Recover the amino acids of this structure.
């Protein structure tokens, strides 16, 4: 198999490296699509409309922002697009009926085969195995640069849970860590919150009682994605941290008790938080899936479930499914328990991993955690940037370009 050089043959207005890939061998026009073959025998088909829409020349993509300029609505020939296609010096060259020319890099096309998953450095979520143990990354490695951050981000996005060890016992350290990746996500509890027992609490987290496994703020239309909890002090007896993989529980239910899974997936219920200043409510199912059936969110918080507005028969069936989910959350195969130490931070995916704690005795020592939330988009973005920097030591210089500015 031949591979292209490090420099792309065509500038495709794409920052993620694509020059390394098999060379193009041939193209075969059909009625509605073009079939392309590479030297490694891979074959893919692209519709002519897709090819016209993805032209990366300076007329079709802004040379600086890389945003799409081409507007199919203004092209009378778009729906009937049918170009002349050739392979020229390893580049797919298309000449459209209106005279416009498009060029496609072989590696870029190969990355975007319809059946290929985008490999941008962001891992897919993986359900916890029975012997699951969270990854530990040192605070020093996190602060040192890309390797530590890549390890921490990969574990968090893949497993939904990761630990940071040996950090300083300094107020606001959780803020400094969060801002490495993006701004804090503010809620009705503020942007940064202190988890400690206090008088007149407006949330069970600010007491010394045990907290059943739950996700935070399911009463929001878009609950916070990632929660970070930084331990400053933990000298009190009790108070172990509890975590369970909601995705793994939901998947187990899908296979073991499918009727209960479908009940929690298909029945929206009401969540609501109220205090003197806030009244935030939403109606949503406990388990949410995407168009492919892949689980993308769990909402579970028994404290702020609102009135169950279902007829008796549906209510009884829902309660049965709900209790099955709850019971499985307590099974050892789906959970991990540990005590956070001073200078240790846990980060977890709040829309996947449920958290809780054991009761603690505030008379036996101080317990003080600081927490905040962070949008997962910032973490995925950071990991993609790290991945593309790791893929190329220096910016590529096109050998043949349809973009006169040379923006990469």
């Amino acid at each position: 198999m031949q591979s292209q050089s490090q420099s792309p043959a065509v500038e495709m207005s794409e920052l993620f490296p694509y020059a390394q890939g098999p060379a193009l061998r041939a193209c075969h026009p059909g009625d509605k699509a073009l079939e392309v073959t590479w030297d490694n025998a891979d074959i893919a088909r692209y519709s002519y409309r897709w090819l016209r829409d993805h032209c990366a020349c300076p007329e079709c993509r802004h040379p600086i922002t890389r945003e799409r300029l081409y507007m199919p609505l203004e092209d009378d020939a778009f729906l009937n697009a049918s170009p002349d296609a050739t392979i020229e010096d390893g580049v797919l060259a298309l000449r459209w009926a209106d005279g416009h020319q498009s060029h496609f890099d072989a590696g870029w096309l190969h990355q975007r085969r319809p059946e290929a998953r985008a490999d941008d450095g962001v891992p897919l979520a993986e359900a916890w195995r029975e012997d699951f143990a969270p990854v530990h990354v040192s605070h020093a490695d996190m602060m040192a640069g890309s390797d530590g951050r890549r390890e921490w981000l990969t574990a968090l996005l893949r497993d939904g849970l990761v630990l940071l060890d040996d950090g300083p016992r300094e107020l606001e350290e959780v803020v400094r860590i969060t801002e490495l990746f993006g701004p804090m996500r503010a809620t009705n509890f503020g942007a940064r919150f202190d988890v400690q027992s206090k008088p007149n609490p407006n949330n069970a987290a600010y007491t010394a009682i045990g907290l059943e496994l739950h996700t935070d703020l399911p009463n929001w239309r878009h609950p916070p994605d990632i929660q970070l909890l930084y331990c400053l002090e933990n000298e009190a007896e009790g108070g172990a941290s509890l975590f369970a993989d909601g995705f793994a529980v939901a998947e187990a239910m899908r296979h073991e008790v499918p009727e209960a899974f479908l009940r929690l997936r298909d029945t929206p219920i009401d969540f609501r938080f109220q205090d003197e200043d806030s009244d935030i409510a939403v109606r949503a199912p406990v388990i949410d899936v995407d168009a492919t059936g892949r689980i993308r969110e769990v909402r579970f918080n028994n404290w702020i479930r609102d009135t169950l507005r279902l007829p008796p028969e549906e209510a009884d069936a829902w309660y049965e499914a709900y209790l099955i989910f709850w019971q499985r959350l307590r099974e050892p195969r789906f959970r991990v328990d540990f005590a956070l130490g001073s200078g240790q931070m846990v980060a977890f995916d709040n829309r996947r991993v449920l958290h809780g704690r054991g009761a603690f005795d505030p008379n036996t020592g101080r317990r003080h955690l600081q927490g905040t939330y962070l949008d997962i988009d910032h973490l995925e973005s950071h990991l993609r940037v790290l991945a593309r920097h790791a893929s190329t030591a220096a910016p590529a210089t096109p050998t043949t370009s349809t973009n006169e500015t040379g923006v990469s």
User: Anything to note?
Assistant: The longest helix spans residues 312-329. The two ends are 26 Å apart (CA to CA). The CA atoms of residues 133 and 359 lie 23 Å apart. The chain has two domains: 24-119, 135-374.
